[in-house]
Design brief:
Strand order of the largest sheet: 1-3-4-5-6-7-8-9
Low-confidence stretches: 1-17
CATH class: Mainly Beta
Largest sheet: 8 strands, antiparallel, barrel
Radius of gyration: 16 Å
Distance between the termini: 48 Å
């Protein structure tokens, strides 16, 4: 009986995770960004666009596409694993925190393989924080 309850619990978690990722489906343009404690330039941000659809992403900054998958990691705050399947990040996985507030999606990337503990990149060379606006 415990095994059946455990399987049902896991199925419920997986279902809610998929529902959470569906909420961020859409085309996103960055409105601000910071990497390693330094702000990203407007010129660089203006080139970026990411399209998220049903657990996949297509990122472009004008130099070709980076395509991959998204895996929800439930928790507080919500986490996501981003794995490249085609392009410059093929085979790489980045761990993140994310939050959706209205039409703003904030993603904090742990570039060193460690999931960030907060939405903060100030003075942290291995952390990148980007706020996106749904377009």
């Amino acid at each position: 009986m415990k095994t059946i309850l455990s399987l049902i619990s896991l199925a419920c978690i997986a279902t809610s995770a998929s529902a959470d990722l569906k909420k961020i489906n859409g085309t996103w343009k960055p409105i601000s960004g910071e990497a390693g404690g330094r702000p990203m330039t407007k010129a660089f941000l203006d080139k970026m666009v990411i399209v998220i659809k049903d657990g996949t992403y297509d990122y472009d900054e004008g130099n070709g596409h980076d395509i991959g998958t998204l895996k929800d990691v439930p928790g507080k705050p919500q986490g996501m694993d981003i794995t490249g399947t085609k392009g410059p990040n093929k085979g790489k996985t980045y761990v993140t925190l994310y939050k959706l507030e209205g039409k703003t999606l904030t993603i904090c990337y742990g570039l060193d393989g460690k999931r960030p503990k907060a939405f903060d990149a100030k003075g942290k060379g291995s952390t990148m924080l980007i706020k996106y606006q749904r377009s």
